[in-house]
Predict the structure.
Amino acid sequence: MADSHATAVEAAVPNPELRHHFADMEQQKNAASLGMWLFLVTEIMFFGGLFCAYLVYRSMHFAALAAGSQTLDIKWGAINTAVLIVSSVTVVLAINAIQNGKAKNTIAYLAITVVLGFVFLGIKAIEYTNKFEENHVPGAHFHFTGTFDDNGKEIAVDPHQVELFFSLYFAMTGMHALHMIIGIGIMSTLAVMTWRGRFSAQYYTPIENAGLYWHLVDIIWIYLFPLLYLISRHR
Amino acid sequence: MASAAIPANQVPEKKTNYLTNGYSVKSWLLTTDHKRIAILYLISITAFFFLGGFFAMLIRLELLTPASDLMHADTYNKAFTMHGMIMVFFFLIPVVPATLGNFLVPMMIGAKDLAFPRINLLSWYLYILGGGLILHCMLTGGVDTGWTFYTPFSTAFTNTKIIEAGLAAFIAGFSSIFTGLNFIVTIHRMRAPGLTWNRLPLFIWAQYATSIIMILGTPVVAITIVLVAVERLFHLGIFDPRLGGDPLLFQHLFWFYSHPAVYIMILPSMGVISELITAFSRKRVFGYRFVALSSIAIAVIGFLVWAHHMFVAGISLYAAMIFSFLTFFVGVPSAIKVFNWTATLYKGSISYATPMLYAFGFIGLFTIGGLTGLFLATLGIDVHVTDTYFVVAHFHYVMVGGVVMGFLGGMHFWWPKISGRLYPEGWARLSALFVFVGFNLTFFPQFILGYLGMPRRYADYSQMPEFQVLNVLSTAGASVLAVGYLLPMIYFLWSLRYGPLAENNPWAAAGLEWMTASPPPTFNFDETPVVTWEAYNYDELDHLKEQKEVAVG
Amino acid sequence: MSKEHTVSLGTYLLIGTTLLVLTVATTLIAFVNLGPFNAAVALTIATIKALLVILFFMHVKYTSEKMTGAVVVAGFFFLAILLALSMSDYLTRAWR
């Protein structure tokens, strides 16, 4: 941990970031961290409602959901999963850099994270456009004539229930994308703040906590990918 | 208690306190002082309480006669929806946590403020934003689905302002989440030296349990509201049966929050009662560990029972049996509290100041409300009385007879600390009587009405004109109850100017909040206290007082 | 969250690589017919990936704060309750 030398320095000159209601920086940092974890739990429960809807409908209308899933392009889903994983690595590298006082590296890693975030969103835009062109967007123009390819056997499905799959698809990936956009905004802001000298090895709590948020958005996608794209791929 | 006022010739020099520390509007609207934020909440929540009460008045006036003659049935639907939405989201959920909780939590643990003061202010602004939206929604047409927003009526058929009302609830939900988050971090990380978990006031345990529910439950209703909005706006028919969707899924997701929500409402009030019972029987609480852990138990088990709101909605019988069993189970920790409070009273040195009157009222009325909850948990009975006035009476007994009584008791108890003034005890006792009598007259007849079969949410009961007598009694009771609520408003405001000045600890109560000035300074304590005593150490306190008196004598 | 030591760059890159390998694995396994076990395998891999992110990237493995672990477990536990008890309705509706 930040060693006793740093604590001695702190005691001599109070950290300008120390808020008045905290006794010391460690208490403040622990409080901020616990607060962020609690917020992440709310995000888990928020997406949890969507996962519940998914689970219910998968148990009720498996074939229809599988048929819908089979129209998604698995390569985009897999690439996006890889993009997010790499972006999580760049986030931890950014924090590692600031822990060692290397603010310039932090800015670079945060910038790469933002770029990767945009790549993710770009790929989602491509996928959404494809779905729009195939008339798979729920609503008045929805039209589905496919079947569920169950290992070679063609099983007829109710297009209404397939529309349910796409409702879930857009709701879940859309909500995830919204969280990505917010995450990109936060990371960009932190990069600018780092560039302005706001953070150092003695104080980088916001970057750490924003990193936690980013990792959670990654974890949500880690579950979305198999649930939405890999329902029944064996043919 | 007459000695609690300071004689005029001994009024101490005025030190700055949190109320006098800045008089500008900006110093209030941009404050990060948890005590000022509590006051901001107190004012806004009270306003919404009376607005919700206004809708209650409309309901009760309509029900004076069997025919739907005061308003059209559609308007009546809007009246009870607005009553429910405002009371649930803008009164009951925040009332104790955001007012008494915000004010007292840091003080009770010896801290200078909550962990995140700016987020605390944000919570209030979110509440105001949500409140503004619900007001606008109401003034431009309102909502008629009931506060429960059931699908497919709310998604596919009604033309009222669902999205705006849903957005208001969503935003208010985040206000709630941030408050809970703040409390959990504060209680974990900012307790004074020596203040171990087992020395905490039970109010803190109750707030902590409440905060757990806020964090875990509120997001689920948030996403549910989003899904309803998305279904209305973009036709993403998650709950649409025409697409193979299940309207009951909405109910599962909705009640997953809304049942634990009622524990958000009652737990803080129970925490207040623990403080009042100990203070006014001058005794340590019986079974501290059990009462503390029962709050956590209620929070956890409360998440396991939600489908008891859906027994006749179409869930499987086997699920209904599971939820019925779990619902019986959740009554146990509440019962433990009632037993332990009663045991605390035994051989206590009991006094009957107004806060204690409200505490007694709570215990009696909450017990009735809770027991009737067990009737509703029984599948066979529920089939008969669900969606009747029996249910309405049950939840008003726990919500009003429980939550509001606890809140009023707490307001009276801590008023000297909050305002530095004493309220007039005579008027306060009279109001408590009005509240108790008015409440029972309003809601007891509703148990009978429900059992006899009067459905809820009906403007017109002219097919069952024999119900009119009980309805008239209920409306009469509501008028008495209204007086009981208006009087404290008046005398609390009066006391701000004309009430006798209060000393630090007019009740000679235990607790860190009583060791600082009334009203407290902005940073609560001149020095962070170091705690070496157990909670509710009245035996020690009274022993010390005796020693002092003997020494002086 | 106090960290006892900063995690080495090597560890981060190793975990990152593992995550990418697991992504490839889950994609490829999806094309193999395992019957009802496809879902179980996919979710198991996803859970392993999530755990790696939580323990290493989010430092839960290295923190001395017990609350962090408790909060994570609580979050997933209550999500499990939502899913399990909701499914207790849907799975038993067909029962007679």
Summary: DSSP finds three helices and no strands in chain C. The radius of gyration of chain C is 18 Å.
